[in-house]
Amino acid sequence: QVQLVESGGGSVQAGDSLRLSCVVSGRTFSRNVVGWFRQAPGKEREFVAATRWIGEITYAQHSLKGRFTISRDNAKNTVYLQMNTLESADTALYYCAASDYGRSPSDPSDYAYWGQGTQVTVSS
Description:
mainly beta; 7-stranded mixed beta sheet; 4-stranded antiparallel beta sheet; 0% helix
């Protein structure tokens, strides 16, 4: 059993930055992958970034052009998503999710556990 709670979203202006946090609780992690996804109105859920809980391997959506960076603090059971130079197109509900094996880190169906999401709204 895994629970995830996102926070850090809000309303900002284009060009601003935000850091989202995802606190993970439940069973001990040794092989899980934790990822960030986003979903805008009328669009499919989109992969943003993911990290293995153990080790340094990360995955990222190339189209984000390096503006978004995932990181984690294992001692705090927290995964972060640093979002810089935000654009109106980044407006979406951002979800944190956990996968038992992470065989397909960019595939939403690979994740069994999801948070409720945190809203990011970027105004131009």
